[in-house]
Amino acid sequence: MRTQAQLLSIITERLTDAGVTYMVVGSLASSFHGEPRQTRDIDIVVEADAEHLQRFRDSLDPNEFYTDAGAMREALERRTSFNIIDITGGWKVDLLVRRDRQFSVTELSRRIAVRILDTSTFVASPEDTVIAKLEWASQGDSERQFRDVIGILEAQGASIDRAYLDHWINALDLGHAWQAVAKPAQETD
Q1: What's the pLDDT tens digit per position in 17-46?
Q2: DSSP label at residue 159
Q3: Helix (H), strand (E), coil (C) string for 117-133
């Protein structure tokens, strides 16, 4: 049975070999920048064309990984997501095609090289992880997203770029979600 660390290593190595630009986001990113928590999946933003994604898909052994070629093509066309299922371990990898908007372009350009789960990889910056978590919170499942944001803010402290956060919170109309996070954080001070 494959571990999450082994899966991350395999997937990011294959993405790199296929020429796909990527960054780890979601729970792994927030755990890296803030308070660690368990997750059964890996979320990765990708920027690639159909040829590079097909090269990536072809590099995965179909006896070990399930991917749907149609779902991959549709995700690329609609700029949504598709899944890879690790048959041997039951893990899921969500590949999210980079959205066609300025924040998403900026977010990917700010990715940072790190080591997560003993794997050299790229991860979204702490600020971009906060903003993405606020977006998810505004769409539902807010309690977990807010806990992740608070964990990042507490762990990063003064090193977090507040001007950058303020800019994108305003630009993406996330003030309500930000206030929901800021109020509990102020109450604990």
Answers
A1: 999 999 999 999 999 999 988 888 999 999
A2: G
A3: CCEEEEECCHHHHHHHH
Pairing of β 81-86 and β 92-97:
antiparallel
Helix axes 175-187, 162-171, angle to 10 degrees: 140
Which amino acid type is present at position 68?
D
Pair type for strands 65-67 and 41-47:
unpaired
User: What residues have CB less than 8 Å from 150, skipping those under 6 apart?
Assistant: 34, 35, 181, 184, 185
Q: What tokens were used for 81?
A: 């997501």
Q: For 100-117, what is each residue's pLDDT tens digit?
A: 999 999 999 999 999 999
Three-state SS for 39?
A: coil
Angle subtended by helix axes 142-156 and 175-187, to nearest 10: 60
Rounded to whole angstroms, how far apart are CA atoms 38 and 26?
12
Q: Are 87 and 62 in contact (CB under 8 A)?
A: no
